[in-house]
Amino acid sequence: MDHILQRHIRNICASMWLVLLTVSLSAARFTLRPISVLYVPYEFNSTTGEGLYGLVKGPSEQSSYDYKAHLLYIAGDTYVQIANITDAANPAIIHSRPVRSSVNDIEVCGDIVGYLENGIAHKNAQGTLHLLHTYNMTSRNWTEYLEIPVGSVPDMLYFTKDCHTIVVVNEGEYGETDVPGEFIDPEAIVSIIKLDSESSDGYRINNLNFTSFNERAAEYEARGVRYPFKNSTFSQNLEPEYVAISSDDSTAYIALQENNAIAVINIVEERIKEIYSLGAKSWKNLNLDASNRDGGIVFRNYDIYSLYQPDAIRYFDVDGTGYIATANEGGSVEYPTWTEEKRGKSLVDDGLVWGESPLISALNDTSKLGRLKFTQYEGINASRFGKIDQLHFFGARSISIRKASDLSLVYDSGDVIEVESSRELTNVFNTDTKPLSATPEGAADTRSDDYGPECESLAFAEVDGTRLLFVGIERLSAIAIFTFPSGSAIPEFDSFYRAGGTNKTYDQLLEDKNVGDLDPEDIKFIHNEKSPTGKDFLIVTNNIAGTIAFYDVIKNSALRTEAGFFIVSMAFVVSRTSSVLSMS
Description:
The protein is mainly β. It has a four-stranded antiparallel sheet. Helix 1 (2-24) runs antiparallel to helix 8 (556-583).
């Protein structure tokens, strides 16, 4: 019995030793050290006042940090909430403000908090920008002083550095009104708001629309700006979703995800300068897993293309030159009675593909391209009987770097996200975050025929003289870390960090408080001077999980030191355990 126990303990200790040794010898230059996870209530028990928690309840869409008070403002579907993270290891919700409709974004600038609320009558009605003073910890007051009407489905807001100008992007999605069966397709709008105490309203607003581009729709479509749904105008098809602003606050870059484009706006002159197509990505020389019915991770090369279609975009400078980083998630256009998506085999079955295409065999095979979702409105060649001879699917499964001056591509991560995740996160490769009764491992490979890993959120950082880029990856529930060589705009893949379990259902993982960063919708980097821990700090807002995760950003040299300490400690434990058992 003693010998068996001794052997088991030695095996356990040896296993822990190997884990720590692996960490200490990792090639990764940077990693994340978990500090805590804040579970955000989506509702409160009417009798006890206790918070209610659950997956896919929408309590944490976005967040913003006020470093002066160490308060985190959290936007959700039913509340805007405030957490005190002075003690980052024990964060706590201290205030919950009910909202009338779902809130898509929240930002702090100076002593102002702004948040965007969808329409009240229905989601696609006119939205509202709420402006409040920062929360008063002494009086526990949170005072609103302005409600500003903006466009339909306001998706993101951005303050200029002086906190006097606010750029709001209003997506204007097609949707049903409060009258059943009645649908509207609102105009795309970018609102530029100037706060002005001398104005009778306290502000001036200019809602920029894209209607002047309607007469040039064919020209922009020929350039690659997507206009798939012809029952609405070109400007109604445009859907602003994300904004990045140049370091001098003069220019706003607006991601039009479904349109595979970025609009550029002169903030000073309050005018739309141009719309740039982001083009198509060739997969001819890249590895792609395009099927969920190929028995697992199977990479092949195909002469096909994909659309970049970024979600998050970020501006950064290198030696005076501006660049835009993009997280190329992908997104198709879909209406209640119309969709552009079609699986590869259906394209062939419906006679939409040029009959002599060398890809016909792969399209007919569900283990190859037969399951992949393509757009049926790209790559049509009039000289080939109006059939598709260049296949395009959704999302580039990557990050990209583009010059801010003309949005020309200078770098794309190619197949790195998928290939590296197939090595480092094999058991959750291209997994799905739904259904909740599934396990992350059990759902592996199920998104290969859709948009793959889905890069979603971005955050830049400067740590010990090195520029980092954190990438939130929706389906993997992971954070990818890229580093930039000094003076370069071209990043290099460094590592993945993934929290949470993989072999229990999502519901069980939530119950165990081990769900991880399920859908990292937003990432914020806080430099050590403003961090509650005094160290470089990362805040990850997880939409499906309903959580906010807090991490210290660690350079691997520091990790090696800590791992070395634990290895020495474990060696001592193994030695002492062996001695005790030998004497028994």
